Amino acid sequence: MSSTTRRSRRPLAAALALVLGTATLLVSSPRQAAQAAPAPPEQALAQWIDRDTVVWKGAEHSAAQLEFGAHGDRIRLTPGSLSPSERAASPHLTGYPAFTVDPRDRHLTGTALRGKLLAVQRAGDGRRTTTGVQMPGVLDDLYGRRAQQAALGPVFRHGRPTLSVWAPTARTVALELDGRTVPMRRDDRSGVWRVQGQRDWAGKPYRYLVTVFAPTVGKTVTNKVTDPYSTALTADSARSLVTDLDDPRLAPAGWSRLAKPATVPLRRARIQELQIRDFSAEDRTSRHPGQYLAFTDRRSDGMRHLRSLARSGTSYVHLLPAFDFATAPERRADQARPGCDLASYAPDSDRQQDCVTKTAGRDAYNWGYDPLHYTVPEGSYASDPGGTARTVEFRRMVQGLNSAGLRTVMDVVYNHTAASGQDSRSVLDRIVPGYYQRLLDDGGVATSTCCSGTAPEHTMMGKLVVDSVVTWAREYKVDGFRFDLMGHHPKANILAVRKALDALTPQKDGVDGKKIVLYGEGWNFGEAANDARFVQATQRNMAGTGIATFNDRARDAVRGGGPFDADPRVQGFASGLYTDPNSAPGNGTPAEQRARLLHYQDLLKVGLTGNLADYTFTDTTGHRVKGSQVDYNGAPAGYAAAPGDALAYADAHDNETLYDALAYRLPPHTGPADRARTQVLALATAALSQGPALSQAGSDLLRSKSLDRNSFDSGDWFNALHWNCADGNGFGRGLPPAADNKDKWPYAGPLLADPALRPDCATIRGASAAYRDLLRIHATEPAFGLSTTARVQSALSFPLSGKDETPGVLTMRLGNLVVVLNATPDRQHQTVRALTGERYALHPVQAHGADRTTATASYAPGSGTFTVPARTVAVFRRGQ
């Protein structure tokens, strides 16, 4: 899952290994998970799904009632059944007893929903059975249509703000503004509470005082809560601020005239995934280390490198969560630092991780997958977290990236919240208890995402997703969005986001919404799995929508093994399976290795097509198959309907970096130069594929996190990017933190102690230059941007695929190009007899490029033979 609060996902690892195969996943810490999802004091087995119907798991199919109020008021229920439309809307409830609300009592519904509510049934012997009642369905039915049209949060008109919050179950709502209390008025048709303010309210701190029944504590409480639709915050998210994002004072110079880099369609996008603090925290040339403003430091090493990637063909920078999250103290004075001389310890010492871990919960570092306010920039990245500096500086960051030739993608996490119930970090659930979180059949909050899951299938949570994304697009000119755990969203919700963005125009909104790209994690697991509650936004279901999903198939094939393997040495295509075995018993016999490698090569072929379901080719058994007929852990490998549906990648922030994964898997005797060549080869399987591709920032520089597989809270020491090669690549900074890595320490220690695994400057620079050559080839060759399955089928083939295919070598023909990926430790000759007499030569970018070993690749027209050095990807072009 590459997502969420990223604390140790050990509680989910075993189940997810089965559900996802080897899709990336992390989880929150047991401590945080316990705070995030407190168990309700009593179960809520009844679900009021609309104004007419209640479903009650475990009830007798006989008369029942809903009881509420101090005087035992009731709503009578008679045995009934779900209508076809109700079964379609709530498929997970179809097997439970259903009850119909007595028409004589329907007028009591609004009152019943604003206090403690119990479902009650008496058995023939007089026994009384009671349970709590889940209310999201009936709230949507009563209020959703009108509330969906409401403008929530602070909205300014002629300089005067109106503050609005949806709280249909609240008894009262008031505004706490700058220390005084202002009453708010309820709209009974929508459940929205509003108050209109004066001009002098602008800039003032506020909270809502919401008096509401809270099932998790079994009583009525008055919660002091920030605004879910906040547009600005005080430090540490203590208060919302009455802020108009259209205020000219919040616009940096040139903001209204911001020139975007040329549009790159998603199918051609090459994306760098980057964490804001990682980018500059240890960059001595940056004037704003760890801040948004580091992206305005044009002369810093980091920005110089990003510009070089942009010139080579990188089109987007994907920023890990930059919305307001819960785990990092925002004031620098409050941020703890490790109290040790970390650099003094041995490369394989456990002292570094011990020291970093002691301050991890109080330092400035976290990936930020624990949302607090979805639509405000995170304050710890701002020069001053206490006001609107974060708004201005986020915008300046976008300007800086755009001026470097890069569009900006935001990683957004709407699938869960940092906490639920009455936790102080719970915002949504303290305003409308039991609505915004996804509840299980017993009324407990779903935590399959690692934390307190949200329910975008509910009208107002779905609205919040759409409204938030549109705000980031319109007010911050963000160019794309990556949805964390997108499979936990309904497909309809993500399509609603697409529709809302498409409606944005330069004339009306200052941005062209149709040019904004969308992609996400389409994993299929948890309580929503297999479309149990709605049609999910999963890999298979999103095919054909133009919204991409991460393709874990090719990633696993190129790396080998999976993130949950007990032995991290299980090899893959790039890491020497069969062709350069490392002696790990988990790799199997030579015959088993050969068979698995050839199957990996079929997975990579499907990946190079853009993971197309209907692309037809000859597999390594000699059979003619479609991409969808190639097996991936029991699921179809190919699922895309067109290039652009699947996003290729060899590594991302989750799990070990590519360099670290290869460090485990390559034979120990493999030297630094060969490790670098393997890294470039592995990156090429994504960089030279059809469809979009992503790489983790620094992978071209052989970035290491000292073998840390889950560095979400491992601080700058393990995470920071090192743009200056003299500082190394991060390998050998100590054993990785014990919480998620201790079981791998016996494998990690000897590697970290080996100085041969720490590459020198020449090796790092050479790898980066070779990767940029691949980006240039991709950017300048139209054949890498084919738009349909039919075009890919016509232009792309694997001429040597079949029973006699060379293990460890892939040969792809693409229009006027031939690409040979030789992952073996030996020079290889690939003869394509159909090309005998044709005029091919090594692509000029590589022939005159940085890697002189690749430059020795050759072609013999008399036999149609391509000769490629060991651990090399070579691109040949036919002469004109």
UniProtKB/TrEMBL annotation:
One Pfam match: CBM_48
Sorted UniProt keywords: Signal
Domain Alpha-1,6-glucosidases pullulanase-type C-terminal: 728-876
InterPro entries: GH, Glyco_hydro_13_N, Glyco_hydro_b, Ig-like_fold, Ig_E-set, Pullul_strch, Pullul_strch_C, Pullulanase_N2
Organism (species): Streptomyces glebosus
GO terms classed as biological process: carbohydrate metabolic process
Pullulanase N2 domain: residues covered: 44-141
MF annotations from Gene Ontology: pullulanase activity
Xref: CDD domains: AmyAc_Pullulanase_LD-like (cd11341), E_set_Pullulanase (cd02860)
Domain of life: Bacteria
Presence of keyword Signal: yes
Name of the protein: Pullulanase
Residue stretches making up the Glycoside hydrolase family 13 N-terminal domain: 152-230
Family named by the database record: Belongs to the glycosyl hydrolase 13 family.
Signal peptide (residue range): 1-33
